């Protein structure tokens, strides 16, 4: 594979990304605290996907007694906000292109909900906007690629929608005609739109430099600037992470992707190890983690959320704070990696 094929999607549209973020981030959205706004956001996403030619299935769930998190606003990370939920009713959206081949399929996912009190432009209208623009780019290809899309519910309540989707998809695969489609790999878009080129704008979690000295050294060498996308991966997804990094660098924005390998194995053992190594818990704070736990290779793309963005989980997380040129680069690299992953064309 040559360099010019790493980013074959030069038409990612920054203006369209901004319009999507502005609609989605009109206010907080969630099933419990802002159900009307959540329904409008869901319908917007469904209509945009269907308008691009995708077949969209709404997959409702009704779950009882689930350990998760509170969705109250604030800077504390999800792992420090535990809560037992008595009953949760929500829905994920799963989309495929008609005519896409059976067999190994890449899944691109992002969560739609926000915490209470925050319009969530970065967390996570940015991720959903990238998913929608990725959908448009993939639908324009001459042949439908083996890629599916997932818009998750209730991430802020403890990855509830993604946990449900990972369980169902690992058991049943994706529906549709022409045969079974198993998930070859998953790309999670989690708070991907905030960048800051100022020295010192990028912070690291406590204990991070000891646990991940290579990534910490790379951040320090760049003056702790928040000018990169962090690509969190495991051994099973290392090739996909490197592919994404090369594709991002080849975009007009020349986006830097900083790789961070989670040393834990896929499966339940990785989850248990995280309990003994607190810095590792930060690497599983979004919707990719349930797929790891089901032994499905996955990446998390992120601007590092509260370790960079001062508006994280606050009313000031608004569309004007995001960098849409770099968001277009995230889109192009994501589309390139998703189309390559099912057949390991890395």
Automatic annotation (TrEMBL):
<feature type="domain" description="Peptidase M28">
    <location>
        <begin position="281"/>
        <end position="336"/>
    </location>
</feature>
<dbReference type="InterPro" id="IPR007484">
    <property type="entry name" value="Peptidase_M28"/>
</dbReference>
<dbReference type="Pfam" id="PF04389">
    <property type="entry name" value="Peptidase_M28"/>
</dbReference>
<feature type="domain" description="Peptidase M28">
    <location>
        <begin position="92"/>
        <end position="199"/>
    </location>
</feature>
<protein>
    <submittedName>
        <fullName>M28 family peptidase</fullName>
    </submittedName>
</protein>
<dbReference type="InterPro" id="IPR045175">
    <property type="entry name" value="M28_fam"/>
</dbReference>
